[in-house]
Design a protein that fits this description.
The protein has helices spanning 50-57, 80-89, 105-116, 121-134, 150-162, 180-195, 207-213, 231-236, 241-251; strands spanning 10-21, 24-35, 39-43, 65-70, 73-74, 90-93, 168-172, 199-203, 216-221, 224-229. By secondary structure, it is an alpha/beta fold. The chain has one domain (10-251): P-loop containing nucleotide triphosphate hydrolases (Rossmann fold), CATH 3.40.50.300.
Length: 252
């Protein structure tokens, strides 16, 4: 029997994943295993398939070929119960905050645990207050999204994802919609989660941050994982011309 708590166990296990949109093949055979408590940053040019890969992991996109499992449970699109269970394992934070505008910060955080897990209202409220405090928003329970800055809204979105106690948290360019001065406050929260041992898969263009928090960096190019390694391997010793070119374009 597989020991799912073994450090070698792949919490996220992706093999031979292919994804097409019409005649365009966006993912051309992705193999990626992510261990529990590992922080993996995915980098690459726009259009290389990074966001599509994240959307496949949380079941938002179907795929044509290959297999994908989370914590030993295979993703099966035809099985509604299996998909619901899987989505409880996988938290996702998007570029746009996707908060319900008519609900305060706390109610945005409470909604999924109340509806999906049937948590009693008081327990759900206490958990939401604790999570808001954890992301630096203590005392903002009743603030509506339009009364919050972009950075604060994104931190509410992080608290909302954490409310379901997921096994893995996916972050898709979560600072790209923010003004530059607000980026740091969101990345600080993600860094705290990494330090606490959360399994994280991040698509990011913040290279200094990727270098700081990652256990491993994956470089995607034209729908394939082109290179993968430690931050030092990737940034100091890029092997392929494609990665060398990508990094030098960032420095220009």
């Amino acid at each position: 029997m597989t020991d799912t708590n073994s450090p070698d166990f792949a919490l996220v296990d992706i093999r031979g994943l292919h994804k097409r949109f019409g005649s365009t093949e966006v993912l051309k055979g992705i193999d990626l295993q992510v261990r529990r408590k590992e922080v993996v940053c995915i980098i690459g040019k726009s259009g290389s398939g990074k966001s599509t890969l994240l959307r496949c992991i949380n079941g938002l996109e179907t795929f044509e070929q290959g297999s994908l499992s989370i914590d030993g449970q295979a993703l099966r699109h035809g099985d509604r119960n299996a998909m619901r269970e899987l989505r409880q394992q996988v938290g996702m934070i998007f570029q746009s905050f996707n908060l319900f505008p008519h609900l305060g910060a706390g109610r945005n955080v409470m909604l999924a645990p109340s509806l999906v897990k049937g948590l009693p209202k008081e327990e759900s409220r206490a958990r939401a207050q604790a999570l808001l405090a954890r992301v630096g928003l203590d005392g903002m329970f009743d603030r509506l999204p339009d009364q919050l800055s972009g950075g604060q809204q994104q931190r509410v979105a992080i608290a909302r994802a954490l409310a379901m106690a997921p096994s893995v948290l996916l972050c898709d360019e979560i600072t790209s919609a923010l003004d530059p001065e607000l980026v740091g406050e969101v990345l600080q929260v993600v860094e705290m989660l990494a330090d606490e041992g959360m399994t994280l898969i991040l698509v990011t263009h913040e290279m200094a941050f990727a270098r700081k928090v990652s256990d491993r960096i994956v470089f995607m190019h034209q729908g394939l994982i082109h290179e993968s390694g430690s931050p030092d391997d990737i940034f100091k010793h890029p092997k392929t011309p494609e990665l060398q070119q990508f990094l030098s374009a960032l420095r220009d």
